[in-house]
Write a structure and sequence with these properties.
The protein is α/β, with parallel strands linked by helices. It contains 15 helices and eight strands. The protein has one domain: Aldolase class I (TIM Barrel, Alpha-Beta Barrel), CATH 3.20.20.70. It binds erythose-4-phosphate (E4P).
């Protein structure tokens, strides 16, 4: 599994690249905003072009840097994609252009298909496309058919939606256990039936509340972020798509392990998660003991 870092902060990218395990960088307008604001806070100015060129250079020719377009109309998306690709790909031949799967936002009149049009045309021009904001397996399937290099299923965003539907209080970094979530849904279902035991089967069958409870533990048939990734991996496998599954919107280390278990090609994670992945109390205790047991003769050897 390839590991990308989900950040536009140069110091995080520089540090993570030193560890020899990072294969790429993913950015988006929100991540760029965070990076730019952090720089501005120090009183410095940012030359965006030079800044991104440095990221591409540091990641190098064996890696990948995802840069996102801003527009919603296919012609504009294509224009922006080509600007980004021409400016930054020559640095290390590693740029992928990020395009949203659906361009329908705030009820705009442009419609849903603009992203897809741009994805297929740009892919036809051999520009690698990372299709972003994937929330369903069928969106991923269309992106793959359009020739995308990567699809980015947003795990935490799907998890959040399901948890909100179930009224679960959660912290963003909480591990999301879909089995537990299924139990909660079934508990709610039983409770509702108990409270409505005098209704006829025909009435219950038509009862909208029941339909809501039953569907509350999924987001259009997806039971959580991991389930989304797993379903996409399976579909791509069925049809031998070459599009890589890039698990995105990752919040905790358990997701990292589970994504690897279901066979995603790539995962992109925020900087802080690397530390969490490395930490274990027993590793720390073990190391403390080793440090306490160092004998002088051995220390001398290493001077
Ligand atoms: C990755 O490519 C995405 O931009 C990223 O993971 C966004 O997810 P988040 O905003 O939910 O963290």
């Amino acid at each position: 599994m390839k590991i990308f870092i989900d950040t536009a902060k140069l110091y995080e990218i520089k540090e993570a690249l030193k560890w020899g395990i990072v294969d790429g960088v993913t950015t988006n307008p929100s991540l760029i905003k965070v990076a730019v604001e952090a720089i501005k806070k120090t009183g410095k100015k940012i030359d965006m072009e030079e800044y991104i060129k440095e990221i591409c250079y540091l990641v190098g020719k064996n890696g990948s840097v995802s840069l996102e377009v801003l527009s919603l109309k296919s012609e504009k998306i294509m224009e922006e994609a080509q600007i980004l690709f021409k400016k930054f790909n020559p640095i290390a031949n590693n740029v992928a252009i990020k395009i949203p799967i659906d361009t329908f936002v705030n009820g705009n009149k442009i419609g849903h298909y603009e992203g897809l049009k741009a994805i297929s045309m740009l892919s036809g021009m051999n520009i690698p496309i990372n299709v972003t904001l994937i929330m369903t397996p069928e969106q991923a399937l269309l992106a793959a058919k359009a020739g995308a290099r990567y699809v980015s299923p947003f795990m935490a965003r799907v998890d959040n939606r399901v948890r909100e539907q179930l009224d679960i209080n959660y912290m963003p970094e909480d591990y999301y256990d879909s089995e537990l979530e299924k139990e909660i849904a079934s508990f709610k279902f039983k409770k509702y039936l108990e409270n409505n035991h005098n209704k006829s089967i025909a009435n219950l069958y038509e009862d909208k509340n029941i339909k809501d409870i039953v569907s509350s533990n999924s987001d259009t048939g997806v039971y959580g972020g991991l389930d989304l990734v797993e379903q996409i991996v399976k579909i791509f496998d069925n049809y031998n798509f070459r599009t890589e599954v890039l698990a995105a919107s990752v919040r905790n280390k358990t997701q990292f392990r589970e994504v690897a278990k279901v066979g995603a090609d790539v995962i992109t994670i925020p900087f802080f998660l690397f530390e969490e992945i490395l930490q274990h109390p027993r590793t720390e205790i073990g190391l403390r003991t080793f440090c306490e047991n160092i004998v002088e003769e051995y220390r001398e050897l290493l001077k």
